[in-house]
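Illustration: SDR family oxidoreductase.
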Amino acid sequence: MTLGSDAPLKGKSVLVTGATGGLGQAIVSRCLAGGATVFAGGRNEAKLTQLAKSWGEKVVPLIYDVTDERAVKETFRQIQKQQMQTGIGPLWGMVNNAGLMFEAPLSISSLDKFKEQLNVNLLAPYQHMQLAARLMSRQRKGSIVNIVSQVGEHGSSGMSAYAATKAALTGVTKSLAKELAPIGIRVNAVAPGFIDTHLTEHYEEHAREAVVSRIAFQRAGMASEVANAVFYLLSDQASYTSGHVLPVDGIFSP
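Result:
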């Protein structure tokens, strides 16, 4: 592949979790534009089916809960089955995009909510990486991209549980990058800042302005900008890059 290739993922497949959210949709669209066949995972069957129709035949919808261990294993069996039956290219990329965020001060925070975030933001990506790496090891090449957060690095008041899960995923990313490098699998992360998605739509205007005032670019980021970073790390344009966290935050000052 050359740096100027319009379709660096042609003939390859990518699994994207949380595909029905704003960021997930942008990642799927970017991968499609780059030539990939995309396994799009999500829980909302109606929405995922509708999106799959708009995306076209190069998207394979996978309806499952990322926190259901048995369902995840079955999903990877389905991926293998699809590849054998249809000739879809080998699993080249894995994007752990599904995420969950609750905000609450320590004094009233719930351990149940903490566990929910832990399951979605850390344990689910871990299982997905384990199963994806087994498939990628067959061709001794692949790329895993985890969506972490600038909150995981800098912290944020009222978001200690969420920050903990994302910081932990960053640690897993860096450790697995070293572990999987000998078999040709790269592991990186993208750390979005304040991005216009469903995770930030609840912000009231004054709160939004307060956050944007701390961003050098003086605006929120777009999902497409995060998707471009993910795509770069998936492709061979980042063939010598692993164990890194790429911020997409417009230079945010915590």
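Reading the tokens back as a structure: The helical segments are 22-33, 45-55, 69-86, 111-139, 150-154, 160-180, 205-212, 223-234.
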